[in-house]
Design brief:
It is a single chain. This protein has 496 residues and is mainly α. It contains 20 helices and 2 strands. It folds into 2 domains: 264 residues, no CATH class; 216 residues, no CATH class.
Length: 496
Amino acid sequence: MNNLQSLQYYYPEILLTILILVSIIYDLFLDKSKSDRVGIVLIAGLVLIAFSVFLQDEKITSLFTNSVAKDPFSQFFKITIILSTVIVSIISLKNEELKIYRKGEYFTLLGIVTFGLFLMVSAIDLIMLYLSIEIVSIISFVLAGYLKQNTHSNEAALKYVVYGGFSSGLMLFGLSYIFGLTGSTNYFEVQQSLSALSTESSSALIIAIIMMLAGFGYKISAVPFHFWTPDVYEGSPTTITAFLSVAPKAGAFAMMIRFFNQVLADGAAMQGLDNSSITEIPWAQILSIMAIITMTLGNLVAIQQNSIKRMLAYSSVAHAGYMLLAMPVMSGDSIYAIMIYLIMYLFMNLGAFTIVVLVKNKTGGESFDDFKGLGWEMPFVGALMTLFMVSLTGLPPTAGFVGKFYIFASLIKGGEPFYYLVFIGGLNSVISLYYYLRVVKIMYFSGKQNEVLKTPGTVLGAILLLTGLPTLFLGIYWSPLATWVQNSLVFFIQTI
């Protein structure tokens, strides 16, 4: 489909582009003290765009000369990304860290990142894949260092740039290898060419895919490409930390699933990397090892942290490992499980970060000591933080339990070769129980009981309800979500 014909199916992205331009222009006419109004415009615009994604034509096709796909799979992730951005934007309106800065630019940059993530989840061309990653990465660098008067924020941005540049360079090198081997950048043409490659070319292909894994691993915070995560998460504005832990991670998993499923495996069959792989390279085993190391290291290092924000950073690494567990299976069930897990993770993780913002607004800190007595001083907040910690652990009856249940179920369905991953994943969940319940212990068994009860405020209280209710409710009744995910498990498949 040529570019002009593609525009009729591309109106959510067109609306998002218009929204970004409106935000830039509107910010020019506002005083610094009123620039947070841009955030309200962004939130309203994103809600409208979410409806436009839901109302899109059901036709499955490729756009712009086969560079992006329009399919239910990408639509699901677009909704997930919009939901994350809206929640983070609302929290940002009440984040005291940003009070002395002009917020108009901040919200505009969030809109641009969202556009980049839209491209990321739809890309079916190596060039578009790389461009989308760069859009997201470059703007994320700026957002990580948005607290310009804070040296920790400046350090976070610098480390993010260094690690991001290195990973991006490796990925670009890998892409060039694939182009050299196949003569194409389109996913489906690459797949056809790789299936016809001689065994002499397997070494070059291994090098290429490992280099690409650097890019994928960097975005999802997988070991050994996670080194940026704790420092960047700790130094960035808390709202940006929350955003980075959810939205780019969702986009990266969508990108990774589409690449492995449609380039290295039979994308139509979704029979697994071992059963439908077009090469003899043991991708399933490689991804399994990567998942085990990622979740184990994330959990073990999280135990040692004294900052809740840094603890949640390593927790994010561990959760990337849990989701990565399903990647080696690469079946309909495993992809379905990852998509379920991402939605569950969105609510419980953003809820936890909302409370971190609340506490930092109150105390100016984000260490465990700042949470002492929180359960007695703010019973509503303490109860919800307990819920989020229990859910992140994966205990019933919470959304986190359902997410892990589907991950482990997909591994069992994958057959005996994946049984050991279930055991290791369960063991890691037990380890994580220690540092998550440590937060609960601090809130209720440390510090003095305050007789004067406090409330979180209208806006942050509403966000806590918006994240807390799904965290609990989806642990009890998740059938509508499961149906939506099942209907979204449809890829655009091009016949060469």
